[in-house]
Amino acid sequence: GENVEQHPSTLSVQEGDSAVIKCTYSDSASNYFPWYKQELGKRPQLIIDIRSNVGEKKDQRIAVTLNKTAKHFSLHITETQPEDSAVYFCAASGGGGADGLTFGKGTHLIIQP
Amino acid sequence: SAVISQKPSRDICQRGTSLTIQCQVDSQVTMMFWYRQQPGQSLTLIATANQGSEATYESGFVIDKFPISRPNLTFSTLTVSNMSPEDSSIYLCSVGQGANEQFFGPGTRLTVL
User: Fold this and answer.
1) What was the pLDDT predicted at B2?
2) In this structure, are residues B101 and A46 in contact, taking their beta carbons and an 8 Å threshold?
3) Cross-chain CB nearest to B100 (options A93, A102, A105)
4) Looking at beta carbons, which residues of chain B come within 8 Å of A33?
5) Whole-number Å distance between alpha carbons of A100 and A95
6) Which residue among A30, A44, A56, A79 sits deepest, i.e. has the most Cβ atoms within 10 Å of its Cβ?
7) Main-chain phi, psi angles of B8, to 5 degrees
8) For residues B57 and B95, what is the distance between their CA atoms, to the nearest angstrom?
9) Using one digit for the tens of pLDDT, what is the confidence trace for B45-54?
10) Cβ pair B15, B86 in contact under 8 A
11) Which residues of chain B lie closer than 8 angstroms to A52, CB-CB?
């Protein structure tokens, strides 16, 4: 089955700086890669996603890039703000026609004032 | 996106008992899934709840322990059977919308004593 690795486990950046979180996946058949933000005590929220026929997608301060050959994808947050502090999860699906998500272990993003 | 509710929001149960968690969506959806999130951990897919047929379980999860019902396109239940303290987790349902997007319910926080 699919295996998703996520790094780093904790990331501390100064407010206003950029943050990058990286994930790799194992199943070359996976074709959908979402990112979720989870604040303490709340449900995961879908913030951006990318499909395997696209190399990059942007939505305001967040962007995701995908390298299918290397089987890795990354989340980029620019101009970080205190409200960006949360746990971020990457995920993958689509391998073998399955739609369920395989998640990475998560990155705790801390924005330092 | 669809409005997803879960009942109960939390419960404390004795070992050896069973708890049924309900997931209700305000519109018809094709795909419904159940995930588990152990304290401080990532999300793990338990099963895909198929309408009109048996659920599809992931490796490590079995129907006798986690029976699932999906009587229609807006409702599903997950039962955690013969509980032990290791079953203490947050249980989340998610629904598939659009091409691949999944949105999560608020979760059920289960503590087993």
Assistant:
1) 87
2) yes
3) A93
4) none
5) 9
6) A44
7) -75, 170
8) 16
9) 999 998 888 8
10) no
11) none
